[in-house]
Recover the amino acids of this structure.
């Protein structure tokens, strides 16, 4: 018991690794995240925090630290699109929950960045699951606009913010109707009015007064100016086919909008139109129930069919019980669909891309994150098996070439309660 | 951003504060107990097995649900019952349909001990929200079966994607005593009675912890604390004992249920998260003279696996949900494995209309988490977590939940290892009737609600 305590104390006292290592993972099955099939007996080389090479036939630089990947898989870190990571400790404990603000006078101006907490338990748990990057969105409070989300890394250090104000989030459909005062009509009116006020606010000379008949605060209007000129993507929460068409039609009124659909449960019914508009989609694929009237056509084949129609689709929307570490399971289920007559799924490579490179591309980090390609960030995960399989888990995680601790409140609890022996001291002394 | 339906259901429970109307018990229902008994079982099951053909599943890997595994196995069923389970040497009688299971897997039908299908159906509109009678902290008088909507499309998804053949529908957890649960066969039916599992005992749904004290505390009413929770519960049991010892001159629906528990005829399914609180509940059960059959959710069960084993109480749990409320903060993915290590009974449950479609996958996740800390639980035992153990804790373990001679032919043929993410049910039989066949679009139920709607009959 004493030895165990001593080791535990040493582990706690050990400094966290903060320097990027140059390293190579050798003889592993390599999945680069680009949509292709995994390659056996491959190598990944990381130098200076960046990927240098990945695949078969890659030479291992002399003298570099090598990690034997025999029997293991090596992949880019997972990218979780549209999460609540870093904004909440416990959903049901209001004081710990910064996901929404229904009593704030602000909406579009809300910016999650200053509230992000890299020490959140959910960051550590997600990192243990192989998630290295994420986009973070707020929930709506008192408006169709939830505010501005961010892109983060999940490294065990203080510098988590990669891109603040990475996108604006607006809720349309049934939820948007509720926030707008009771109807989709009101939501679309609120949206158009807000964009008009944004345009006017942006055109004013510094210090000039706005006209009296405005609904938005100045901060909200100015925040939306970035949406109108296309410099900030607009994520639109929408489900029903008809609602998706109405969203796509916004481009004719506001041509510079950089739209991303979030949800799109009935997207497969309008796949060709979404593809033609070149609007990407972030969705939770296994939702197959008519949970609302706006999702009557819900099907697990949604992703596969949209993909077939030419839509760029990422798996995402991880919040609450839908944990980011479940992304591989969601992707794996899409592969399972390929064996079901009448269903449309994804190949393994496509499914894995949907939780790595595709969400990274949609989030503005194509080629830099979610992929093992020269010049990409050194986010590397070594798995003890096929990463989409239920039995697999990461054994090593690097972010920007920095080896990460895989420990959390959960891992400490599991160590404490690995046995229930309290013969000599209570469990409180096992730490 | 929007959250899942399950999350919305949870958060709606968090935000309660509406005005309270104390349920006036129907005290004027002055019926003699013997009159009630003379009327027979009310709302009795009218379920009858659908026609099936004598079937032989040949060549698959068979998990019997009780820890047994047979390579290249043979399963025979006829007239709705399992006739024989064995290896390749088992002869297929003449007249049997032979289903080639080479490369495939056979398990008992999947069973979910904790579902709200039908009482919180899809679509999840307010008009369909019938799962929680939150007008009094104790409502043992309500019966979930009176809320179940048999046209909930969730039943068909559970059958087709999850291989679920039986499930227990519970009232919600807003009340300390939420009411009677009902056990159903997962068969499409015009009526709830047509789904009711013949001979299944009733269960009383109880809930401890945050939910009841939050719901009623927000109304400035008892209970507003955990000690209030216990006080209200204990008084209810004391009152029920008096009723039980009395002449039953005035019939009381709620006390009928509690009397059934005290007599051991009705099981107790107790929603409870924290280890210390489960220990308190076990003492309350001892004090009042009843038995808790299973703790549900039980995210801290791993802290008291020894106590649960000693008390012969199952833990019905998720694989790794955690952190959504304070009492779930200590949830860990190794919960099931550490319980198994202590020899305690593990059941994997869903409490979710999506999760019920993947109970096998949840079990596999929990198994893998155990393996990584050196707790290696064989696949055949893990299959029991979502078949036999669930049946046992629902009081139907003698009838279904395992592939044993004479039991109901509730059977799933999987197109691969059910503990793999890449596998799905290929065929599902309930009492020997084939109710799903992936290769036959006509063997796939479509609820009334979905007819003529976008995506009707689509592969979901």
């Amino acid at each position: 018991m004493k030895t165990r305590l001593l080791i535990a104390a040493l582990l706690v006292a050990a400094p966290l690794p903060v320097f990027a290592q140059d390293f190579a993972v050798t003889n592993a099955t390599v999945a680069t995240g680009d949509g292709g099939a995994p390659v056996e007996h491959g190598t990944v080389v990381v130098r200076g925090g960046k990927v240098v090479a990945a695949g078969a036939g890659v030479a291992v630089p002399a003298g570099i630290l090598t990690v034997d990947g025999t029997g293991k898989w090596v992949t880019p870190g997972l990218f979780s699109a549209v999460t609540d990571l870093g904004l909440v400790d416990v959903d049901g404990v209001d004081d710990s929950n910064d996901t929404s603000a229904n009593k704030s006078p602000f909406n579009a101006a809300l910016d999650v960045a200053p509230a992000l907490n890299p020490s959140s338990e959910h960051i550590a748990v997600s990192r243990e699951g192989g998630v290295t990057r994420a986009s973070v969105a707020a929930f709506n409070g008192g408006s169709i606009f939830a505010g501005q989300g961010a892109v983060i890394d999940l490294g065990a250090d203080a510098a988590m913010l990669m891109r603040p104000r990475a996108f604006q989030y607006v809720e349309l459909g049934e939820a948007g109707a509720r926030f707008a005062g009771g109807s989709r009509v009101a939501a679309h009116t609120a949206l158009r009015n807000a964009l008009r006020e944004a345009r006017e606010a942006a055109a004013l000379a510094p210090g000039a007064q706005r006209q009296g008949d405005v609904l938005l605060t100045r901060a909200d209007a100015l925040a939306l100016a970035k949406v109108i000129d296309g410099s900030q993507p607009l994520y639109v929460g929408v489900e029903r086919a008809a609602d998706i068409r109405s969203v796509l039609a916004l481009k004719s009124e506001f041509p510079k909008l950089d739209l991303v659909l979030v949800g799109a449960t009935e997207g497969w019914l309008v796949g060709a139109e979404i593809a033609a508009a070149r609007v990407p989609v972030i969705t939770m694929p296994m939702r197959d129930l008519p949970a609302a009237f706006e999702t009557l056509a819900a099907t697990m084949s949604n992703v596969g069919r949209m993909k077939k129609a030419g839509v760029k689709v990422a798996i995402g929307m991880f919040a609450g019980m839908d944990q980011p570490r479940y992304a591989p399971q969601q992707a794996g289920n899409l592969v399972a669909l390929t064996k079901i007559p009448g269903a449309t799924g994804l190949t393994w490579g496509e499914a894995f891309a949907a939780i790595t490179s595709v969400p990274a591309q949609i989030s503005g980090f194509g080629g830099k994150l979610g992929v093992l390609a020269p010049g990409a960030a050194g986010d590397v995960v070594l798995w003890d098996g096929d990463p989409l399989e239920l039995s697999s888990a990461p054994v090593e995680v690097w972010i920007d070439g920095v080896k990460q601790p895989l420990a959390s409140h959960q891992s400490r609890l599991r160590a404490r309660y690995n046995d229930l022996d309290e013969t000599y001291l209570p469990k409180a002394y096992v730490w | 951003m929007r959250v899942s339906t399950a999350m919305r259901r949870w958060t709606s429970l968090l935000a309660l504060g509406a005005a309270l109307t104390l349920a006036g018990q129907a005290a004027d229902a002055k019926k003699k107990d013997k009159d009630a008994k003379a009327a027979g079982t009310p709302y009795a099951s009218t379920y009858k097995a659908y026609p099936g053909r004598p079937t032989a599943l040949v060549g698959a890997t068979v998990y019997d649900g009780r820890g047994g595994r047979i390579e290249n196995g043979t399963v025979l069923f006829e007239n709705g019952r399992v006739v024989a389970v064995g290896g390749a040497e088992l002869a297929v009688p003449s007249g049997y349909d032979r289903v080639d299971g080479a490369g495939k897997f056979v398990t008992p039908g999947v069973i979910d001990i904790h579902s709200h299908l039908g009482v919180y159906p899809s679509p999840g509109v307010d008009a369909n929200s019938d799962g929680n009678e939150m007008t009094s902290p104790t409502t043992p008088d309500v019966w979930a079966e009176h809320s179940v909507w048999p046209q909930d499309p969730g039943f068909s998804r559970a059958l087709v994607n999850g291989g679920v053949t039986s499930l227990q529908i519970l009232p919600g957890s807003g009340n300390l005593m939420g009411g009677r649960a009902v056990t159903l066969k997962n068969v499409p039916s015009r009526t709830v009675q047509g789904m009711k599992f013949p001979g299944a005992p009733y269960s009383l749904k109880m809930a401890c912890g945050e939910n009841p004290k939050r719901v009623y505390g927000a109304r400035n009413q008892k209970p507003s604390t955990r000690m209030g929770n216990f006080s209200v519960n204990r008084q209810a049991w004391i009152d029920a004992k008096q009723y039980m010892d009395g002449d039953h001159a005035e019939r009381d629906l709620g006390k009928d249920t509690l009397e059934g528990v005290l007599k051991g005829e009705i099981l107790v399914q107790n929603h409870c998260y924290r280890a210390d609180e489960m220990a308190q509940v076990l003492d309350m059960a001892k004090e009042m003279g009843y038995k808790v059959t299973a703790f549900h959710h039980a995210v801290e069960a791993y802290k008291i696996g020894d106590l649960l084993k000693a008390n012969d109480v199952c833990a019905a749990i998720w694989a790794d949900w955690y952190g959504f409320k304070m009492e779930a903060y200590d949830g860990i993915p190794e919960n099931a494995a550490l319980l198994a290590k202590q020899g305690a009974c593990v059941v994997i449950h869903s409490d979710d209309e999506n999760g019920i479609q993947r109970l096998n996958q949840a079990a596999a996740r929990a198994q893998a988490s155990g393996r990584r800390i050196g707790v290696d639980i064989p696949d055949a035992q893990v299959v029991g977590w979502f078949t036999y153990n669930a049946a046992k804790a629902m009081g139907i373990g003698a009838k279904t939940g395992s592939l044993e001679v004479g039991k109901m032919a509730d059977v799933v043929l999987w197109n691969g290892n059910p503990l793999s993410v890449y596998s799905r049910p290929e065929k599902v039989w309930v009492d020997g009737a084939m109710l799903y066949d992936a290769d036959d679009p006509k063997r796939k139920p479509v609820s009334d609600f979905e007819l003529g709607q976008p995506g009707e009959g689509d592969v979901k």
